[in-house]
Every structure is written in structure tokens, then in C-alpha cells.
């Protein structure tokens, strides 16, 4: 089932359950998918859909960090709930050990010797973990392994 079909099904369920939070999040995700489809001028591929979901997740995580930094506890709970809803549509995220293994393999593959090779390593790692691992985690892991 495509992401759009899943969102439509969940939208109907949320409407029937009068779940306003889920309803709002699903509508925002549908709008983001529609905007991306219009922007690209063709139907979205699975990778395009994944990119939209990842972007929505990233936006919410950034908002959460800003709200926590600003001591806006009234908004933190709402954003955390939104993140849980968006997670349902995102692929399972890799843990730190899986990312570390991919990074180590990539470092060996490009024969990286230090931080000067950071860009090369990231160029090899990111396509392998796209949408399945947080970019910040990948960045930290690559830096840590290159600094050894």
C-alpha cells in the first residue's frame, strides 16, 4: 500500500474517532506529499515519499528542540505526540551500532585516513542510510571514527 493510500485510510479512521491531533498531522503530511508532487511534476516514487516523511520528522524534531530550549513545556507535549504519529509512516530507524558498521565499512572502502576525507565518507554512507538513520547520528559517527 502506498503512503498516500495509508494516509487516506488513517485519515478516515481519525475522523471517525474524532482524533484531532492525528487528523491534523495526517492532513499536514498529505499536503506535504501533494506539494512535493506538484513541485516535481510527476507522481512520487517511494524514495520521494520517504524524503517527505523524513523532512516532516526533521521539522518536528527541530521544533521540539527549540521549544525545550525556550522552556515552552506547553508546546513540547504536542510536538512529541506529533512525532509519534509521524513515526508510524517512517521506516524503522537504524540503531547506532548498525550505523557504526556501515560507517566503518565505508571508511575502509574509500581508504579514508582522517577528517580530510569526511566528505568522501559521507558521500558513500548517506545513500545507504537515507531515511533509515538520523543525519546527525551519521555525522557524529563518521567524525568519531575518522578521529580515531
How does this model look, in words?
This is GatB YqeY domain-containing protein. InterPro entries: Asn/Gln_tRNA_amidoTrase-B-like, GatB_Yqey_C_2, YqeY/Aim41, YqeY/Aim41_N. GO terms for molecular function: carbon-nitrogen ligase activity, with glutamine as amido-N-donor. This protein has 148 residues and is an all-alpha fold. It has 7 helices and no strands. The chain has helices spanning 3-17, 20-40, 46-69, 73-87, 96-110, 118-129, 135-146. α2 packs across α3 (46-69) and α5 (96-110) crosses α7. The longest helix has 24 residues, at 46-69. It is globular, with a radius of gyration of 18 Å. The relative contact order is 0.10.
Return the structural class: mainly alpha
CATH topology of the largest domain: Hypothetical Protein Yqey, Chain: A, domain1
Top-tier CATH class of the largest domain: Mainly Alpha
The separation of the N and C termini measures: 44 Å
Mean pLDDT: 89
Number of strands: 0
CATH architecture of the largest domain: Orthogonal Bundle
> Which consecutive residue ranges, at least 5 long each, have pLDDT under 50?
none
Tell me the β content. Answer: under 5%
Quickly count the domains: 2
* Rg of Cα set: 18 Å
Topology order in helix (H) and strand (E) letters: HHHHHHH
Pfam families: YqeY
Protein name: GatB YqeY domain-containing protein
GO molecular function: carbon-nitrogen ligase activity, with glutamine as amido-N-donor
InterPro entries: Asn/Gln_tRNA_amidoTrase-B-like, GatB_Yqey_C_2, YqeY/Aim41, YqeY/Aim41_N
Amino acid at each position: 500500500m502506498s503512503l498516500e493510500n495509508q494516509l487516506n485510510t488513517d485519515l478516515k479512521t481519525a475522523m471517525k474517532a474524532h482524533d484531532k491531533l492525528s487528523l491534523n498531522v495526517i492532513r499536514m503530511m498529505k499536503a506535504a506529499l501533494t506539494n512535493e508532487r506538484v513541485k516535481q511534476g510527476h507522481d512520487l516514487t517511494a524514495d520521494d515519499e520517504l524524503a517527505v516523511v523524513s523532512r516532516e520528522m526533521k521539522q518536528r524534531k527541530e521544533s521540539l528542540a527549540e521549544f525545550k530550549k525556550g522552556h515552552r513545556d506547553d508546546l513540547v507535549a504536542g510536538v512529541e505526540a506529533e512525532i509519534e504519529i509521524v513515526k508510524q509512516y517512517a521506516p524503522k530507524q537504524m540503531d547506532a551500532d548498525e550505523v557504526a558498521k556501515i560507517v566503518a565499512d565505508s571508511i575502509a572502502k574509500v581508504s579514508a585516513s582522517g577528517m580530510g576525507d569526511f566528505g568522501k565518507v559521507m558521500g558513500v554512507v548517506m545513500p545507504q542510510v537515507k531515511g533509515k538513520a538520523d543525519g546527525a547520528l551519521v555525522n557524529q559517527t563518521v567524525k568519531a571514527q575518522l578521529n580515531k
